């Protein structure tokens, strides 16, 4: 996570809510998804991956000496994002005849909140990914799904938990 510089003709930010940041998150989720259907049909499921942003936010608070009241928290309101999810580990218990595995689509999960200083609504509070997975074969397991997310947005003080 790092602050983004402003355009050459813009004044520097004077408050936390004016600064734009970039955050990159990557890892592996463990859905342990078993197909359970025959060789001719796909089984599908949507998994919700709730990501813990506290470590990058805490580091940013410490590195840039941002004062945060204990009654408040900082959330990340994204205005740009790029994400990706993919198969990382599969297994088939029996003979893998016509087996198939898929990560079909993915999308960011956002919530709403209220800004502490202004009372304004905070939109696009990022908290995770929703990933559509599938498998075909009665003994097919999709064990691991990898993800990567790059966000651009603002850190916002809130004294209420995000509303998903």
What attributes does this structure have?
164 residues; mainly beta; five-stranded antiparallel β-sheet
How confident overall, as mean pLDDT? 90
Structural Rg: 20 Å
Outline the low-pLDDT stretches.
Answer: none
Shape: elongated
Beta percentage is over 45%
- Provide the number of structural domains: 1
Strand element count: 8
Order of helices and strands: EEEEHEEEE
User: Strand pairing plus helix content: what structural class?
Assistant: mainly beta
Please report the number of helical segments: 1
What share of the residues lie within helices? under 10%
Question: Can you describe this structure?
Answer:
- By secondary structure, the chain is mainly beta.
- The protein has one domain.
- 6% of the residues lie in helices and 56% in strands.
- It has one helix at residues 54-63, and strands at 2-3, 20-29, 33-34, 43-50, 73-92, 100-114, 121-136, 140-158.
- Strands 1, 2, 3, 5 and 8 form a 5-stranded antiparallel β-sheet that branches.
- The longest helix is centred in the middle third of the chain and has 10 residues, at 54-63.
Summarize the structure.
By secondary structure, the protein is mainly β. It contains 1 helix and 8 strands. It has one helix spanning 54-63, and strands at residues 2-3, 20-29, 33-34, 43-50, 73-92, 100-114, 121-136, 140-158.
Would you spell out the secondary-structure blueprint of this structure?
Elements: E1 2-3, E2 20-29, E3 33-34, E4 43-50, H1 54-63, E5 73-92, E6 100-114, E7 121-136, E8 140-158
Antiparallel strand pairs: 1-2, 2-8, 3-8, 4-7, 5-8, 6-7
């Amino acid at each position: 996570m790092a602050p983004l510089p402003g355009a050459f003709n813009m004044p520097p930010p004077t408050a936390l809510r004016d600064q734009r940041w970039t955050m990159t998150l990557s890892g592996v989720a463990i859905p342990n998804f078993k197909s359970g259907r025959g060789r001719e049909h796909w089984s599908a499921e949507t998994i919700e991956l709730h990501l813990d942003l506290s470590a990058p936010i805490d580091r940013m608070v410490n590195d840039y000496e941002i004062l945060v009241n204990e009654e408040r928290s900082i959330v990340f309101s994204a205005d740009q994002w790029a994400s990706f999810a993919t198969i990382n580990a599969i297994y088939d218990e029996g003979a893998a005849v016509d087996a198939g595995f898929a990560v079909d689509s993915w999308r960011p999960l956002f919530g709403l909140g209220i800004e502490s200083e202004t009372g304004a609504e905070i939109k696009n509070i990022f908290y995770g990914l929703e990933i559509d997975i599938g498998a075909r074969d009665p003994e097919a397991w999709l064990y691991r799904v990898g993800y990567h997310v790059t966000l651009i947005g603002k850190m916002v003080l809130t004294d209420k938990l995000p509303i998903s």
